[in-house]
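The instructor's notes for this session suggest beginning with a concrete chain rather than abstract definitions. Hand out the sequence below and ask the class to guess, before any prediction is shown, which regions might be ordered.
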Amino acid sequence: MKKMNITKTTKNNLITYLMVLLAYLAVQMLLLTGNISSLMKGLLVPLCIYVMLAISLNLTVGILGELSLGHAGFMCVGAFSGAFFSKCMDGLMPDSLRFLAALLIGAAVAGIFGILIGIPVLRLKGDYLAIVTLAFGEIIKNLVNVLYIGKDKNGFHFSMKDSISLHLDAEGQVIVNGAQGITGTPHDASFTIGIILIFISLFIILNLINSRDGRAIMSIRDNRIAAESIGINITKYKLMAFSISASIAGVAGVLYAHNLSTLTALPKNFGYNMSIMILVFVVLGGIGNIRGSIISAIILTLLPELLRGLSDYRMLIYAIVLIAMMLLNWSPKAIEWKEGLKRHSKKEKEVK
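After discussion, reveal the predicted structure:
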């Protein structure tokens, strides 16, 4: 029986990897044959970013069972720390090595923030946790908007007033310019790099879910008191899931920063709506369903653009698709129908 479970798990994981690989190959074919518009080309890297954000948030919401609305905050931390490093090291390191270092720094800084926020916050539950994580995201965004950092031969200068108060010398440069953000970040992001990062994120998350630590995290989600009674360290495993989720969001932020010429902490980029949108990907794809999060993120990102020609009905169709996906995933009848299909498929295999 144990061998069968391992085989089934491995099979499911391979299907997820194969799905991403086939999508990548299909897009590459379209690019080579020139059958993809410039608008869709521009959406390829954001698609990778949204998929990473969706699967990382699903680790917190679906596997850990905690409602977090601060995911855009972790993305913001990763984006600005990675872009800051790249801006400082531009021309001093090989491009590929610099970008790799920026990804690692973004992941590390976002992970540290995940631990620092998680220690006090994860003692809360439900709505209280959601409100505090939402507040964290808004605080980070507003702090970045009043932060000025410059660099000259004397080192780094910090201010929260304006760029003039940095008192830079003639050769100095402003790196973070308050609400104007960081300008001139090297354009290192690409669709291929995005896909590689998705594979790495999936490998980390799927292996965590199917490990002993993952089973401990899911036991906390299912029954905290029972998990604690058998000696599971609640704080340790909650922080583990929360920090890994934050780190992957940080990596997505670095990819986002290196896909733009100017990085700013605007509400549409890192605000409340971004966190809600990522949560929508998770909920509509199925809470705890990593594959569903990927499909949901792709559909809900592409759909508004594919329907742009139907400008009068675009949002109406989008809303209908949202409702249909919600009913398909959460309606008792739909769940019963899917379970019936599974049982029927299992019986057919047994007969064969």
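Then share the key points. Residues 2-33 form the longest helix (32 residues). The chain is about 75% helix and 5% strand.
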